[in-house]
Specification:
This protein has 185 residues and is mainly β. Helix content is 0%, strand content 42%. The chain is built from no helices and 16 strands. Strands 1, 2, 3, 4, 5, 6, 7, 8, 9, 12, 15 and 16 form a twelve-stranded parallel sheet that branches. The model has no long low-confidence stretch (mean pLDDT 92).
């Protein structure tokens, strides 16, 4: 099983900027997010069970799934997918931004004529990549199963922060099952 390789023997692959083609993250490597990483539509980011992705502590690391893109992170009970801080055993709450899913489902914003509007999720520096909301109640942003998110939730300004996981305009087609957000050691 490639997931059984000791962490110290797994190469670290850095991910930054935009993901504009579908990619597969495998459990025989560890992945380091640097800054805000945007999965752009129609790309699909698939993550194998047992894979670890960690956020850089100093760059405001966050993984943002934009409307029309998808994340397929289906871990298992024995091999969960872990998003965590690069701090390891010295990790603290708020070490990195977290996981953000932005969808095309209806939200509560309407213009003066009663027409649906998009929102801008807080906590993301690149506001042009922070739009969410639409008209598809069954929109799918992908699937999160047996996923653990640790030490996320970075504030970029007072009243402007991310949570461990942020769901914004995510539709009924999105699967979320056996997901945990951990903030303390």
């Amino acid at each position: 099983n490639p997931c059984d390789v000791p962490e110290a023997n797994k190469p670290i692959v850095q991910i930054e900027g935009e993901i504009d083609v579908s990619q597969l993250l495998t459990c025989d490597k560890r992945y380091r997010l640097l800054g805000e990483v945007f999965v752009k539509p129609p790309s699909v980011l698939t993550i194998e069970p047992g894979t670890e992705i960690f956020g850089d502590k100093t760059s405001g690391a966050a993984l943002v799934i934009m409307p029309g893109a998808k994340i397929i992170a289906n871990g298992t009970k024995d091999d969960p997918i872990v998003f965590t801080s690069e701090g390891g055993q010295f990790a603290d709450p708020g070490d990195w931004g977290g996981l953000v899913l932005l969808g095309n489902a209806p939200i509560n914003l309407k213009d003066g004529g009663g027409q649906p509007m998009q929102g801008i999720v807080e906590g993301i520096l690149s506001t042009q990549n922070a739009l969410y909301g639409g008209t598809d109640p069954n929109d799918s942003s992908g699937s999160l199963q047996f996923v653990r998110v640790e030490y996320g939730g970075k504030a970029i300004a007072p009243n402007n922060e991310l949570n461990g996981i942020t769901f914004a305009g995510v539709g009924a087609g999105t699967v979320v099952d056996h997901v945990m957000v951990k903030q303390t050691t």
